[in-house]
Every structure is written in structure tokens, then in C-alpha cells.
Amino acid sequence: MLSAELQFRDGTAVVTRRDSLFADRFALGEEDTYDVLPDGSGFVFLRGPAETRQRQRLMLIANWPALLRAEPKER
């Protein structure tokens, strides 16, 4: 993942500088392997080879402390 500095010349964008954003290696593939946080403050990346990722699942539970405090629901 790179950041780029652009200059516009005669209506064309020209890259004048490139910088690596991260020193670590992240997964690359045809599918999306990263996303931007909703507030634009950062990224979420998948790591590891594609073969490993296909066998694993990620479950994210947002606001889990509130779920622990919530009253149990009857079935």
C-alpha cells in the first residue's frame, strides 16, 4: 500500500513521489483484503497466505460489553 503525491500538468495527473505506508507484509489477492475504517482513521488488513485465509473465519462482535450487560432474551 502506497501513498502518492500528484501534480497536475495540462489536465493530466503525474505521480511525483511514492511512499510505502507500512513496513509489514499483508495478503494480496483478487478479492478485497483490506478496508478503510468508517471514520477514515485507519485500515483493517488480512494477513497470511490465501490458502490459510480460506479455511479461517473472522467474527467481529462490536460493543460486546453492552451485550454482556443486556438482559437475556427468552426463547
Average pLDDT over all residues: 77
Distance between the termini: 47 Å
In total, how many beta strands? 4
Q: What percent of residues adopt helix (DSSP H or I)?
A: 10-25%
Topology at a glance:
Elements: E1 2-9, E2 12-20, E3 34-36, E4 43-45, H1 50-55, H2 64-69
Labels describing this entry:
alpha+beta, single chain, 75 residues, two-stranded antiparallel ribbon
Structural commentary:
There is one protein chain. By secondary structure, the chain is α+β, with helices and mostly antiparallel strands. Helix content is about 15%, strand content about 30%. The chain is built from two helices and four strands; from the N terminus they run E-E-E-E-H-H. The protein has helices at about 50-55, 65-70; strands at about 1-10, 10-20, 35, 45. A two-stranded antiparallel sheet has the order 1-2. A two-stranded antiparallel ribbon has the order 3-4. The N and C termini lie far apart (about 45 Å). About 0% of the residues are buried.
Give a brief rundown of this model:
This protein has 75 residues and is of the alpha+beta class. The chain has helices at 50-55, 64-69, and strands at 2-9, 12-20, 34-36, 43-45.
